[in-house]
Amino acid sequence: xxxxxxxxxxxxxxxxxxxxxxxxxxxxxxxxxxxxxxxxxxxxxxxxxxxxxxxxxxxxxxxxxxxxxxxxxxxxxxxxxxxxxxxxxxxxxxxxxxxxxxxxxxxxxxxxxxxxxxxxxxxxxxxxxxxxxxxxxxxxxxxxxxxxxxxxxxxxxxxxxxxxxxxxxxxxxxxxxxxxxxxxxxxxxxxxxxxxxxxxxxxxxxxxxxxxxxxxxxxxxxxxxxxxxxxxxxxxxxxxxxxxxxxxxxxxxxxxxxxxxxxxxxxxxxxxxxxxxxxxxxxxxxxxxxxxxxxxxxxxxxxxxxxxxxxxxxxxxxxxxxxxxxxxx
Length: 329
Description:
Number of domains: 2
Largest sheet: 7 strands, antiparallel
CATH superfamily of the largest domain: Protein of unknown function DUF4465
CATH class of the largest domain: Mainly Beta
Helix content: under 10%
Shape: globular
CATH topology of the largest domain: Jelly Rolls
Order of helices and strands: EHEEEEEEEEHEEEEEEEEEEEEEEE
Oligomer: single chain
Strand content: over 45%
Distance between the termini: 14 Å
């Protein structure tokens, strides 16, 4: 068995460690009572969204038919993780926010834009916690009058891209909210826990656009209900410019080990110590293949469904960053 070792210096990692962060937890937003959600019918067809942390979250309602959420983001403390159907569109499958918090947000529509505000504009976004909402999850699990039950070959995915200085950037990152593409059907899944969606690879942005896509489509577009849930939206704002980052003395070194090489069905990633880390695998065209959130020293990445070839692995977290390549056999 061979092992690839990647050496990283603190010199490369200085900027990440010195960034100030703001987390939009949505907990300070007001709701009238338990098991309810944000509603604003005052300006039909326009953005009546809200700000939290260092971002604006749009929300558009249409009062033509008595009050219809037509696109954007609504905040919620709904706890119904059981009831299927459109009438339960404001609930997360987790029935609660990340870490046991009360509130979270639900996004609806094939595309949702979040605009950064204040000092966050022009800086990278760290990421956020993501999960399915109850309506979408149950639809994929069971099927309904509009969408089919998911089976082998199906998938439901979110793609994030960024705007910077008014221009849509080429880079993108993706996350599978449901993945039935694995050779072994026992590995198929629909996300029902809060997972981390790493957005750092997008670099500097002023706003983000999230696009949903599915393998289940019809003559009117995607059949899968176009929803996802978000919590702990984390932005970077400032840099400590007083601390030198160009010194070369006393450089710390981190070793990242990968095995087996070439990878077969599983790639093992070993860090020098335990800690939060986001791992993003892309193909050589830059397309995101999979993302993994880890809090342990030893992490396994499922590579069984990847086509043979060369891939890139980027690891970020705890003020450290690593990029290396591996071969899938």
